[in-house]
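User: Hi! I have a protein structure encoded as tokens and I'd like to know what sequence might fold into it. I'm fairly new to this, so please keep things simple.
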């Protein structure tokens, strides 16, 4: 969703969908960028901006797999596994 929005903002055009490609399997999935997704992206951005004003941001999941593959793992004091 973020990449679709970035393309729209930078190229001043309408992006109806994006393609998610998993590196390890090369599987591709078409992701429709519809009004519902745009609203959802807007809500997530608002939540992220609100979090920037907090001193501590708590982990919102219990998924070890997510933490193990996370690029922020090295710096995170709430990592699992
Ligand atoms: S390592 Fe930290 S930032 Fe990454 S998914 Fe886990 S809790 Fe979230």
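Assistant: Happy to help. Inverse folding works backwards from shape to sequence: for each of the 81 positions I chose a residue that suits the local structure. Here it is:
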């Amino acid at each position: 969703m973020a990449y679709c929005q970035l393309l729209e903002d930078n190229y001043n055009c309408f992006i109806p969908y994006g393609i998610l490609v998993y590196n390890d399997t090369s599987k591709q999935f078409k992701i429709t960028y519809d009004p519902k997704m745009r609203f959802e992206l807007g809500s997530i951005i608002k939540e992220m901006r609100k979090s920037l004003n907090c001193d501590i941001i708590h982990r919102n999941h219990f998924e070890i797999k997510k933490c193990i593959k996370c690029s922020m793992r090295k710096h995170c004091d709430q990592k699992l596994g």
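A useful reference point when you look it over: Strands lie at 17-21, 28-32. Feel free to ask if any position seems puzzling.
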